[in-house]
Amino acid sequence: MTDTENIDIKKAFAEEKLGWRGYVEWEKYPEKKELATRILNKSKFTPIPEFQFVPLPDTNPVLIGHRWKEYHEVLGLKHIVDFSWETVQKEKPDLIHLLDFPYNGETTREQLMEGKITSNKYHFIRNHGGVPDIDEDVFELEVGGLVKNPVKIPMKDLKDPSKFPQAEVTVTLQCSGTRRIEQIREYPGDGDELINAPWGEGAIGTAVYRGVPLKKVLKIACGGILPECKHLEFIGADTYFKKNNVFNYAVSVPWRKVRANEEVLLAWEMNGEPLPKIHGYPLRVVVTGHIGARSCKWLYRVNALAEPSMGPVQRQEYLYFTPQVGKQNSKYSNGFSIQQMPVSSAIIFPLDKKVIVHDGKITLKGWAYSGGGNWVQRVEVSNDGGSVWYAVNEENMTQKHYHAWRLWSIDIPTDAEGWLEFCVRTWDSSNNTEPTFVRSAWNWDLHVTSSCHRIKIYSVNRTRPETAKRLKLLEEHGEDIYNLSHPPEFSLEPLDEYLAQYRKYPREPED
Ligand code: MTE
Known about the structure:
Elements: H1 9-12, E1 20-21, H2 30-42, H3 66-74, H4 78-91, E2 96-99, E3 104-106, H5 109-112, E4 125-126, E5 133-134, E6 140-145, E7 151-154, H6 155-158, E8 167-174, H7 180-186, E9 204-213, H8 214-220, E10 231-242, E11 245-254, H9 255-259, E12 264-270, E13 273-274, E14 284-287, E15 299-305, H10 312-315, E16 319-320, E17 336-337, E18 344-349, E19 354-358, E20 361-369, E21 376-382, E22 390-391, E23 406-413, E24 418-428, E25 453-461, H11 465-476, H12 495-504
Parallel strand pairs: 6-15, 19-25
Antiparallel strand pairs: 1-5, 2-3, 3-4, 6-7, 8-9, 9-12, 10-11, 10-15, 12-13, 12-14, 16-17, 18-20, 20-23, 21-22, 21-24, 24-25
Bound molecules: ligand MTE.
Residues 123-128, 173, 175, 236, 238, 249, 279, 292-293, 295-298 line the site of ligand MTE.
């Protein structure tokens, strides 16, 4: 109960459909939204933690979403928070937990490079709210707005191949926050109330999704769209907060995208298994080649619209600003909405700042991806910061797909020793490549870090006789080259050797 209005919160924000746990309908009830806003306005919440100007905690979960838990709690929705974490522990115990609630989890390096397909247990997760828990038997999808016949389709009909033709598509989903940590390290940016997670290279993954193309549903079930329809809006059953207003997750894509048949799929299967709860069970959208945000999970309503969705995730999030836009001048209208993803890549092995002992070649491995139906055509790697480039051989890349990444590996010739800067850039099928430096494309909301990915490697080339000799000496003394900054206890050059050399080549000229 709130003190002033004498309202029974449990009743006001109750779940209304049997078997649809963790789902509160907001979009149909403006008065319910207003009540939630009044309650939120009266409450005090924990401030967003500062993690851009200070080091990230060395913990797992890395960040704790106190504020979003509190938003749910004051509306009597704590069970949603609890169920989210229970689901993480069941379905995603081994991710890097970047944010505990809303849950954001990143795939580890080993799992990223496991193979072309990321297994369901290790595919990254990006949530904006809790995880709804909806029974498939009672689930139905609503399709309405600017269609000829609005319909409700039970799940069993949607999955019936005699009613709707099915398709399987191999799709890489990428969060626009992938590699955000590089932008933060260069210049800190916006600290949104829904924490802009400090993702590394693992907010990307690839799966085979099975479902029915949305185009077919619109045609077969609804008899087609009306001429005014230009966008399709997707509504998810989770609850989203923005500046003390409450929403169901809502995004949209242009009709032109949906028209391309299998490019927008309503999916219930991921890698041959039912969608995991945390990935949107029982039904999600998979929008190929677009920012992951459009692939709405826990989809329960599709609206055909004349304009893009007015939902805050569509209008106010995932905007791309120019570098001179920031807290002083950013507006929702001076950023553009990110849809198709650009070409990008990452070096996954070796790790930044590694010491590598080698025989003239260093092995690098990583991923490369391009959105919008462009495929990865060439991956190039440099060991001198980007002047000389070596192409990855075709046989060292995984199979091409229109909508999926390619994993690659290369043995790059490396003669030089000491700190070297390695970087990768990818060319896609439309000859697009990546910006050179993080700063070339830094943006206030820290999205789409698609610049050449750079790492620093300490190269130790043991084909060089002097280096081989030193490595042997270190070994004889039980000392380790990998422990680079640790000073050895013994002298690196005996006095007699030093003097012989010094006398052969004295420092001062003779006259
Ligand atoms: N759909 C709903 N309903 N709620 C969400 O929070 N997150 C989106 C998208 N779909 C989200 C959603 C974002 S930002 C991304 S990157 C992808 O889901 C991530 O998909 P995954 O968590 O299945 O990997």
